[in-house]
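User: I need a structural model of Stealth protein CR3 conserved region 3 domain-containing protein from Wolfiporia cocos for a docking pre-check later this week. Nothing fancy, just the predicted structure tokens so I can convert them on my end. Input:
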Amino acid sequence: MPPSTTDYIPLATLPYAAPPHPPRTTWAAAFLRRRNLILCSFLAFLLTLFALLQLAFRDYDADLDYLDYSEPASQTSYLPFQLPPPVQPATVLQPVQELPDDCLEAYYVRGDPCYTTPLPKLDFVWTWVNGSDPLQQEAKIAAAARFAPDDPWRPSDATTQARLYRDHDELRHSMRSVLAAFRPYTRRFTLLTADFAIPNTTPNLTLSSSWRLGQVPQWLNLGKQTRDGWADGSVELRIVHHAQMFETYSDTVFNSLAIESQLANVPDVADHFVYMNDDLYFARPMSPASFYTSAYGIVLHLEPSLVIPSSRPTPETPGEWRGMGESNYLLSERFGRRHRPYVMHEAKIVSRALLAEARAMFPESFARSATHHFRETAGPGAPSDVNTLFMHAHFIVERAREAMLWVWAVARVGSVDDAWGAAEARRAWEDLGGSWVGAEEEGDEGRLGERELLVRAGTRRTLEARRVAKIVAASGAQGGLGRTTYVFSSQDGYAYGDLGWGKERFPSLLPDTNEETRPQCKVNFDWCFAGLTRASDVFTNIAFNKHECGDCVISALMTQSGELGMGAVLPDDDRRLLPVAGTLPAFAGPRGAVHLPLAADWQQADFTLRSVLGPAGERSVRLWAMRLLQRYRYVIGSTPATFERLENPEQAQAVVDRLSNDRNVVLVCVNDDVEYGDDEVAETFIAFQERHWGRPAAWEKQ
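Assistant: Understood. Predicted structure tokens for Stealth protein CR3 conserved region 3 domain-containing protein:
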């Protein structure tokens, strides 16, 4: 937990503990009391004088809770704070906002609506840096000097480095845009900022090394800070410094990927929050359904035509593709090798619980990324840093796929003791729509009617527009879908099964879609199932080893389930797992998170039914399976968005003209790639921001 605002102590009034004095005689004690009385009176006079002076010059010194650190061309404010104890990651997975048990059955069997109300407000989290901050610049130079000349992790000396730290007043206007477009659905803003060691040039020398100076925006009115931070109406704003959220923190961090690797540690953030960079804006009013609803789960925004390969990045891999490539390599080692789509550079919804789960699966990769102080390195260093937001989105999609296949192969078809024989093979093949010749009741194991099935994705009504609008409204998501449309749901299978090397769009299974355009695939019995005698081995074979088998199995099961629900996936309703003799009954208190193994390599995990559900307590396998499936629900959404770059004065003017004339776009990203004329670009872009988001927030200096 970070220190409260009471820990932001004015430097000039930092408490000082005097050493104990030896015993004094009575006359000395009386003299001391008299001297103290005079001293207290003098101090009271000074405090009164100071208060009057502060009132007279309040435009120059707004509050004692910050420090003015002046350079000839810069005046910057900081919040002093004491380093908290090291952040300890959660050792137990946290539950997501769960669906009620009383509607899970109808939801998964028939596709009936199931949700919780009311829909909680969302939090927003920004990362930000002030590149013109003198302490930022000094810390960056000092950090770079600690690297050897041949260290691959030393910062790059490319001139493009400047764009990572330039400021065109984006943060202030990004926050204003959210207030203008999303205020009714927002609880709190959290700003993540850098912090620095106390410089030797500060006049107050009583601070220990456990104190840091936290960066704050120059436009923030520190005089309006309360115990809970700042507020604009019902929307709160607070600042969390990097030292207050890193598990292992050595000094100032300049690497956005390292900062993002610690997002699961941000304290007191909502279960679902929207992650923002300072170059992201809301151009039009939005509704919560663009990010999350309890009825459909998290809303992911992905680009199917741009995919990232599964191979590990090389030194030649450019820029952000290194982090995405490393992340997809890790995902491929765990969930099967495949290309995965680009996560769009716009406002992103994050599940705190599922991000923490992803980190628990890949702890070394997240921890390693957090130690790298610079993003663009000279080497570049290897292995590359993980891209946390890419990892988070695809982790959810892959855990949903994994859950479907495990529930079917292990919890439904396999025996309780994990055996997989002729009876299980027959049931599996018939579940997929295949035929089996032979009378099972007469003891005849029978034989396959065909060795290969051609599967064409069936019609699904999960995302019919009228149906979605009705359910979203009933679930309490005010504003409906707004300009967002849902294009794929985890209730309809696996989104990437037909993606390959990229497609123009995700598959549509709606009734009005031409059947000939729907994905088709083949399941070969010998390739996918033959020779395996354990249900958990069948699962790992089709899910990871030969992932094309699992993709087609899911498509077949969705078709067999009908137009709604996924009844063909679920275990029988009377299937129960009995406790192992000698074990204690399961604790009947608050329910923990249900999940499959967290091993980073699927070959090191035990996926047997008994291992996954545990030895203690009698449980309904069907109910446990539905709770597992609901943990990873998602939809892929499409919201009108644009990505623009600022490169030079002439091009910047064209960009702002284009944005001003676009009446459809909702989510805007404007990237700083300025090559020359930065002063002119800044003037043009700041004026554009003021025209569109000119209303100051209550926490800004007037």
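Before docking, keep this in mind: The chain has 18 helices and 25 strands.
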